[in-house]
What does this fold into?
Amino acid sequence: MQKTCPECGDKIIGRADKKYCSDSCRNAANNKLNSDRKNLIRNTNNKLRKNYRILESLNPDDKTKTTKSKLVLAGFDFNLFTSIYTTKAGTVYYFIYDQGYLPLDNDFYALVRRK
It folds into this structure.
């Protein structure tokens, strides 16, 4: 029984359970299969990196205050963060890796760095 590669159509030589004729065909098929998910992850990670760079640049001393308008002007996306930390008092900090922010009154934000 002849098996053909689902990616390129060539004859498969080797083990009976082999699906593709070569590593390159296997990789190409898997890349096609996962491309949508990989794009979503890549885009999300790029936005997280941008948020991180913004917080890092506005917070050189590990603790400072800034305004919402400065964050928005720099392109900060408030919908993306990696973790939430709630203190015993109920204060909620949003973190992007080790850089965090706390919403304050009058559109101010406290920027912190977790050590």
User: Anything to note?
Assistant: The beta strands are 63-67, 83-86, 92-96, 99-103, 108-113. The chain has one domain: 23-113. The longest strand covers residues 108-113.
